[in-house]
Write a structure and sequence with these properties.
Layout lengths: L1 H30 L1 H23 L32 H37 L1 H15 L3 H12 L3 H12 L1 H14 L3 H8 L4 H9 L4 H24 L11 H9 L7 H28 L6
Helix pairs in contact: 1-8, 2-3, 2-12, 3-4, 3-6, 3-7, 3-10, 3-12, 5-6, 7-10, 8-9, 10-11, 10-12, 11-12
Length: 298
């Protein structure tokens, strides 16, 4: 009975700590003006990208050679036009759909696969741990972007295949982190108490261990979004990603590379957008790491 009471009390304490943690994060976010601006920027850009088919008025797909290579702020084109007369600013906003979609969905898939593998390896140990970690070791022998590019070249072009290739290339980070955290958590008192009460392995893993290892995984996921956005742009730049005429930041930069001296805005506008998004995501990720680490709390 006392063991059951201790487990219930520990669970209640965990819920209270989580609620306090969310309040603390909100308070710190309002205090850090730079990170708050970055969060607002990402939210506004995400909404603009989602609504871009309905709110953008510039030419996105159809050639209009009469206004080809118009400089920025000329004839109503904020970001100028490309070699086909398409509005660069509108295509950049529309291209955010691809980058944000690939960055978020591929990270989500990689996290689900990697966290599940890491939880199984850390909790059960034995041959399961050996097999999973040997796969991870072989996986880490290849550079991330080279592996993603190779997988994408094998399975084909398109947004769906980019997401699959990035998820396959990136799941190992979560597996390593989850396994290391589980090795510690499975010996904690609340885990032992749940096991003595007859809780199943699945319940122990997902109800008792997983909620206590989310902090490093959340930080990793946030920072990996920026990594995947850059990877998608690199793959599209090389011609293995999103195909014209669909706008994507990497392919837009690739198309403008031949006109860099005469039409610099064709590279500058999507390049600045890519840099700002990556900077914003990295700043938010660093902020999350600092806020969620109890040792760094003021």
């Amino acid at each position: 009975m006392s063991t059951q009471a201790e487990t219930i009390a520990a669970a209640a304490e965990l819920r209270a700590r989580n609620r306090a943690g969310w309040r603390y994060m909100l308070r710190e976010l309002l205090r850090d003006k730079i990170v708050l601006i970055m969060v607002i920027f990402l939210v506004v850009l995400s909404m603009a990208a989602i609504l871009s088919p309905w709110i953008l008025t510039g030419n996105l797909f159809d050639p209009d050679y009469g206004v080809a290579r118009v400089p920025p702020f000329t004839e109503g084109h904020i970001g100028g036009t490309d070699q086909l007369g398409r509005d660069v600013f509108s295509r950049t906003i529309y291209g955010a759909r691809i980058s944000l979609l690939v960055g978020s969905v591929s990270v989500l898939i990689a996290a689900v696969v990697g966290i599940t593998a890491g939880l199984m390896a850390g909790y059960y140990g034995g041959w399961i741990d050996s097999v999973i970690m040997r796969i991870v070791d072989v996986h880490l022998a290849f550079p991330f972007i080279l592996l993603a590019l190779t997988i994408n070249a094998i399975i084909g072009l398109g947004v769906r295949n980019i997401i699959i290739s990035l998820a396959i290339a990136g799941w190992v980070e979560y597996a390593r982190i989850a396994r290391g955290e589980v090795l510690v958590m499975r010996e904690r008192e609340f885990t032992q108490a749940a096991r003595l009460m007859g809780a199943s392995n699945g319940r122990i893993i997902w109800k008792h261990i997983f909620p206590n290892i989310t902090t490093p995984l959340l930080v990793t996921a946030t920072l990996q979004v920026a990594q995947f956005i850059i990877a998608e742009a690199s793959i599209s730049f090389l011609g293995f990603g999103v195909q014209p005429p669909t706008p994507a930041w990497g392919s837009m930069i690739s198309e403008g590379f031949a006109n860099i001296w005469s039409s610099w805005w064709m590279i500058a506008v999507p390049g600045i957008a890519l840099a700002l998004v990556v900077l914003a995501v990295n700043l938010v990720g660093d902020w999350l790491r600092d806020v969620l680490d109890p040792r760094l709390r003021r």
